[in-house]
Every structure is written in structure tokens, then in C-alpha cells.
């Protein structure tokens, strides 16, 4: 039977790579994003499988609710939800940051993820099968200067995923939190508000993770036997590791 996957933030990066990976396996795709032109291009590129695209801002609960309610019959049974839509904005200290950046990260990374989960999860519970995959980050595990609210949102994703598992213990619905480290996509361009030079500097001299690497992991966690749940995947490129605790000394 052909399965259906819903991927948010599908117009670039991890989301687009996941769409391509699951299309290669013949899955039916529900792809959401805010850029209609990219959604059209993606639908055309993946025309070998059924694709339903929705221009969607995950921060809008009513829009999310409407999207799920109005899915065509062929797409209404969602087997896997990939909560991929998210972003980082700015790298300033907490005392300098733009409050609007904080609001946008909280509304997208936390509330948007919750909205999609709340609207799609009841169907999975009713069918007693499904898989929620949340895109976290190592920023939710390890602090770094300027990571203030972004890291906090990803720590939320980690704990929300754990709590979902406890809520769903009586079902066969699976939950996975994927936590990438240094990964090159449009992430840093968005973080630096379109400054490509700043974005490129983040990856200079490194071999970072690529969107296809993350898509391969997303596919893997869905392909293990149904009685197996991969709870968390923390993944870094080999050029990255955890740093020592910082100590400021007055000398």
C-alpha cells in the first residue's frame, strides 16, 4: 500500500531533500511551505508520485486546521508527519537581539510544530499507527553564544517529543526527534537575514552535513520494524564536536 508523508517547510533544505527521498520510494507527498513558486516547481519535479502542495504558514493555527480538514481523500490518511519548518534568526546576545526575531522563532519552531502535531495526531491515534518526526537541533543540547532563544526552542522540541512518547505509550504511534549539528542549507542565509557572505563564513573550511544526509536519516527511522521506535538521533559532521565550558577570567 502506498504510504503518505506530510513534510512542512518543504521548499528548501531538509524538507525538499526529504520530499525527493520519499518520492524515490514511491510515497504519496503532502508538501507545505510559504513560497508558492517553489512548491509548484517541487510538484513538477516529483510528478512521478502523487503530490499535494499547500501554501502554508505553520504559525497560523486556523490555516493548519483547514489544511488538514480539507485534504483530498487520497491524501487524508497521513502515515508520517515531518515537522521540519523552523528557523534561526540572528546571532546577537540576548541583550541586543531583535524581539521580533524571538517572536518569529517561538511561533514557528514551537507553536507551528505543535499546531501540525495537534491536527494530524488524532487520526494516527484512531488508526493506531503513524510516526511524528520532529526536526530538533544540537542547539537544544549544547549552548553557544547567540543561540539564546533558538536553542531554547529546540530544547522544547526535545522535551515535547519525549512527552509525546509518554502520551502515546498505549498506541503504536512512533515519535522521533532528529538533532542535526552543522548543516549547510539556506539555514544560515535566513539566520543572517540574507547576508550570504556571513552565511558562507559559517561553513568555511568544513565539510558540513547536507540536506540529503538528513533526508537519509529521516527515511531510515521510518523504515525500521514497526515495533521499533528511534527516539532521538543526534548527528554531527566529523569536523564538529562539543566544546569545553567557557570561563571568563578577570585578569
As for the CATH topology, it is Rossmann fold
Mean of pLDDT: 95
Percent of residues in helices comes to 40-55%
The 3D shape can be described as globular
Largest sheet report: 7 strands, parallel
What is the annotated CATH architecture? 3-Layer(aba) Sandwich
Structure annotation, total helices: 8
Distance, first to last CA: 68 Å
Walk me through this protein's architecture.
With 251 residues, this protein is an alpha/beta fold. It has one domain: NAD(P)-binding Rossmann-like Domain (Rossmann fold, 3-Layer(aba) Sandwich), CATH 3.40.50. 42% of the residues lie in helices and 15% in strands. The chain has eight helices and seven strands, in the order βαβαβαβαβαβαααβ. Helix 2 links the parallel strand 2 (28-33) and strand 3. The termini are far apart. The model has no long low-confidence stretch (mean pLDDT 95).
Amino acid at each position: 500500500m502506498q504510504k503518505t508523508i506530510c513534510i512542512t517547510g518543504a521548499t528548501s533544505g531538509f524538507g525538499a531533500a526529504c520530499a525527493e527521498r520519499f518520492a524515490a520510494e514511491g510515497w504519496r507527498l503532502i508538501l507545505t511551505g510559504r513560497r508558492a513558486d517553489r512548491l509548484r516547481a517541487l510538484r513538477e519535479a516529483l510528478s512521478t508520485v502523487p503530490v499535494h502542495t499547500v501554501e502554508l504558514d505553520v504559525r497560523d493555527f486556523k490555516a493548519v486546521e483547514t489544511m488538514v480538514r480539507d485534504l483530498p481523500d487520497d491524501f487524508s490518511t497521513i502515515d508520517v508527519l515531518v515537522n521540519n519548518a523552523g528557523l534561526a534568526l540572528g546571532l546577537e546576545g540576548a541583550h541586543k537581539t531583535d524581539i521580533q526575531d524571538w517572536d518569529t522563532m517561538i511561533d514557528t519552531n514551537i507553536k507551528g510544530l505543535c499546531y501540525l502535531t495537534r491536527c494530524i495526531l488524532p487520526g494516527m491515534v484512531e488508526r493506531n499507527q503513524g510516526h511524528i518526526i520532529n526536526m530538533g537541533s544540537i542547539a537544544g543540547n549544547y549552548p553557544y553564544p547567540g543561540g539564546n532563544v533558538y536553542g531554547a526552542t529546540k530544547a522544547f522540541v526535545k522535551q515535547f517529543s519525549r512527552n509525546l512518547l509518554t502520551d502515546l505509550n498505549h498506541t503504536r504511534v512512533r515519535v522521533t526527534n532528529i538533532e542535526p549539528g552543522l548543516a549547510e542549507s539556506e539555514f544560515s542565509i535566513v539566520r543572517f537575514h540574507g547576508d550570504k557572505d556571513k552565511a558562507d563564513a559559517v561553513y568555511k573550511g568544513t565539510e558540513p552535513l547536507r540536506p540529503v544526509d538528513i533526508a537519509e536519516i529521516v527515511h531510515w527511522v521510518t523504515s525500521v520494524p514497526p515495533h521499533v521506535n528511534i527516539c532521538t538521533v543526534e548527528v554531527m559532521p566529523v569536523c564538529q564536536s562539543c566544546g569545553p565550558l567557557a570561563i571568563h577570567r578577570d585578569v
